[in-house]
Design goal:
Layout: H1 2-18, E1 30-37, E2 44-46, H2 50-62, E3 66-68, E4 77-118, E5 121-160, E6 165-178, H3 181-194, H4 198-212, H5 241-260
Parallel strand pairs: 1-3, 1-4
Antiparallel strand pairs: 1-2, 4-5, 5-6
Length: about 270
């Protein structure tokens, strides 16, 4: 992964040298591009999604010094936000009160006698027989129930053009399956509430980190070349009129001699 990041930002810095300056750069001094580590090959590729576009639009409205383009800009300090994710599963057991019910049936005998009185007189009676009874017993027993928690962490890391990290934010998504139903409900509900616009808040935090970071010059940015120093020619000594006349006479005499002697050269 480290080699991939280094290669990415060498490319980013190189592109910034040859990028054509926008005709209307405005007050923008920092440019942000987006990439992501893709699951299908584990490599970094340009990335854009609706939630990223919406977050950048909101941030740019109040922060004109930060602009967003997938192409590095020569007039601005270029940054790259790389999205990545990691997943993990944790397993364990939680105590759960399990309720069991048992039913028992019993049979008994009954007997007795009595008297019933009315306007017509009194009657004596006796009775005997059997009675069936049913009893229900409820028992609560704590038992260990297995569960698993699926954890997914989304990262947003901002790099400058030299590959240095200027900010990193993340958000953790959790889902519990099994175990204690009350604990699972509380965990899943809390995770769902925290997930509301979590990606937007995370990305806004990264933008704020970029905005606060000092501007650094890209390692691939051409350095100013010092101007070559031009040597000042040596001053030509001034010659007086008398010396000039003397030189002319010597040259004329030399020419007369050279007529009879071709080997003589006059200068």
């Amino acid at each position: 992964m480290k080699r991939v990041l280094i290669a990415l930002f060498v490319l980013l810095a190189s592109c910034s040298v040859f990028a054509k300056k926008h005709e209307d750069a405005g007050p923008c001094t920092k440019n942000v591009s987006f990439s992501g580590v893709m699951k299908f090959d584990g490599k970094i590729h340009p990335f854009m999604a609706d939630w990223v576009a919406n977050t950048t639009k909101k941030f740019a409205k109040d922060h004109p010094d930060v602009c967003f383009s997938q192409e590095p800009q020569a007039w601005a300090a270029n940054y790259m936000v790389i999205f990545s994710a990691s997943a993990a599963t944790s397993r364990g057991v939680q105590l759960v009160n399990q309720t069991s019910t048992s039913t028992s049936t019993s049979t008994g005998t009954v007997s007795g006698n009595g008297t019933v009185s009315g306007s017509g007189g009194s009657w004596n009676y006796t009775y005997d027989g059997t009675v069936n009874g049913t009893a229900t017993t409820t028992t609560t027993t704590p038992v260990n129930v297995p569960y698993d928690i699926q954890t997914n962490v989304l990262y947003a890391t901002a790099y400058n053009a030299n590959g240095g990290i200027v900010g990193q934010r993340n958000h953790v998504y959790e889902t519990q399956n099994g175990g204690n139903s009350s604990q699972a409900f509380g965990r899943n509900l809390g995770s769902a509430l925290r997930a509301i616009n979590a990606r937007g808040r995370m990305l806004t935090g990264v933008f704020e980190d970029i905005q606060r970071s000092p501007i650094v010059q890209s390692a691939a940015q051409p350095q100013p070349v010092p101007m070559a120093q031009t040597e000042t020619p040596a001053a030509v000594p001034e010659v007086s009129l008398a010396d000039q006349a003397k030189s002319a006479q010597q040259y004329a005499h030399c020419l007369k001699v050279a007529v009879d002697n071709p080997s003589v050269t006059c200068k």
